[in-house]
Amino acid sequence: MNFFDRFKSKFAQAPEKTAVKSTVASDSKTATQKTETPTVTSDTHTELKKGLFGDVLVHPLVTEKTAVLAGLGKYVFVVSAEATKIGVKKAVQALYGTMPESVAMINRAGKRVRFGRYLGQRKDWKKAIVTMPEGKTLPIYE
């Protein structure tokens, strides 16, 4: 039967090596599970807020034009397509701790693009311009 052993895969020839790896992996999993303990920190509180309002604010839009607006107390965010002015206002208050004065929403159509001979379009998106009260700033550019 040695002749047919040549055609077996490497894994079939050495089953002992794979068994050793699996036992080592299972031992390390149980060791890490025993050491982990749930703790509540201030980071957990911020993660909870991000979980509640993270689907409203996608990310801040950072361009040269928005940097100029930030100097005037206006901050620009990319928001979800289903976001409303009230939802954006609540999300900014929850994440940054300051209630905005006003929110302006703008729907942007995705650009038409071409892939060789095929025409396509990028996703449509929505942005929100949040005006903060005088003297209040958001830590976006830090």
Describe this structure in words.
- This protein has a four-stranded antiparallel β-sheet, sandwiched between helices. It has a two-stranded antiparallel sheet with strand order 4-5.
- The termini are far apart.
- The chain is an alpha+beta fold and 142 residues long.
- Helix 4 (42-53) runs antiparallel to helix 6 (85-96).
- It is 43% helix and 23% strand.
- It contains six helices and six strands.
Labels describing this entry:
two-stranded antiparallel ribbon; elongated; alpha+beta; 142 residues; 43% helix; 2 domains; four-stranded antiparallel sheet; 6 helices; 23% strand; Alpha-Beta Plaits
In the CATH scheme, what's the topology name of the largest domain?
A: Alpha-Beta Plaits
What characterizes the major β-sheet? 4 strands, antiparallel
DSSP strand (E) fraction? 15-25%
Strand order of the largest sheet: 1-2-6-3
CATH class placement of the largest domain: Alpha Beta
Total DSSP helices: 6
**Quaternary arrangement of the chains shown?**
single chain
CATH architecture of the largest domain, please? 2-Layer Sandwich
Task: Write out the CATH superfamily name of the largest domain.
Answer: RRM (RNA recognition motif) domain
The helicity comes to 40-55%
Terminal-residue CA separation: 70 Å
Radius of gyration: 27 Å
Domain count, please report it.
Answer: 2
**Model regions low in confidence, pLDDT < 50 over at least 5 residues:** 17-25, 28-35, 37-46
The count of strands amounts to: 6
Question: Which descriptor suits the 3D outline?
Answer: elongated
Write the element-wise H/E pattern from the N-terminal end onward. Answer: HHHHEHEHEEEE
Overall pLDDT metric: 77
Structural class: alpha+beta
